[in-house]
Specification:
By secondary structure, the chain is an alpha/beta fold. It is built from 9 helices and 5 strands; from the N terminus they run ααβαβαβαβαβααα. Strands 2-3-4-1-5 form a 5-stranded parallel beta sheet, sandwiched between helices. β2, α4 and β3 form a beta-alpha-beta unit.
């Protein structure tokens, strides 16, 4: 198993940083209304979008009832299959089901139209045990394939933004949560041989991509 996968957060407490996103989900949890919703997560590569998506889905579904799909591979027929599966409670400890649509900027027009009906149908609404999470690395204006306006999709989702400020470095040059997590992983794996400043520098060189930084640690980059 790759080190990045071994250390993938399994709980919200394990997910470092991203306090605003976690606070939003906590508010929905307190109201008991995470299920029956769609979410849209933006953020740079390797900073926790898919992980956050899995954790959101895990609020209502067991891991084996959560599916991650590349948006470019999703078709209207695939959306119809999701619609069919969505309306049957799952077997297991939790009754829910979850779908993570990764790289959502790759959705084509026909698939998007099917998804709009799936997540916001007046005659067949999403059941309260189902969750759909869209993820994208596009942080500015989102243009979907064949469409100039992504508003119809975004208006049907709760938008969530991963924290970038303070991710690698906190105030006055102190290490941010990503650097501290990277250092912790290196220490736990016996792969640490450099001060925390070296971890900050590594993350900065990788544009804050924690997954790539963990891979670098795995290769021995932080050993003397």
């Amino acid at each position: 198993m790759q080190l990045a996968e071994k250390w993938r957060p399994k709980t919200w407490d394990d997910l470092v940083g991203h306090d605003k996103l976690k606070a939003t989900i906590a508010r929905y949890r307190q109201r008991g209304c995470i299920g029956g919703r769609s979410f849209f997560i933006r953020g740079p590569s390797g900073c926790g979008k898919s992980t956050a998506g899995w954790l959101i889905c895990a609020e209502t579904a067991d891991p084996f009832n959560i599916e991650e799909i590349d948006a470019r591979r999703l078709t209207p027929a695939g959306v119809e299959q999701i619609r069919h599966d969505m309306h049957y409670r799952a077997l297991g400890g939790k009754p829910g089901k979850g779908w993570i649509i990764s790289e959502a900027q790759g959705l084509n027009k026909a698939t998007l139209q099917s998804l709009l009906v799936l997540i916001d149908s007046p005659t067949e609404p999403m059941p309260d045990w189902a969750v759909v999470v869209f993820c994208t690395t596009i942080e500015g204006q989102l243009t979907l394939e064949g469409m100039d306006d992504s508003g119809p999709l975004l208006s049907r989702c709760t938008e969530l933004q991963l924290d970038r400020r303070g991710w690698v470095t906190a105030g006055k040059g102190a290490p941010g949560p990503a650097a501290l997590r990277l250092y912790q992983i290196a220490e736990a794996e016996g792969l640490n041989g450099k001060p925390i400043a070296a971890y900050v520098k590594l993350l900065q060189s990788l544009n804050g991509n924690l997954r790539r930084a963990i891979q670098a640690v795995d290769s021995g980059a932080m050993l003397d």
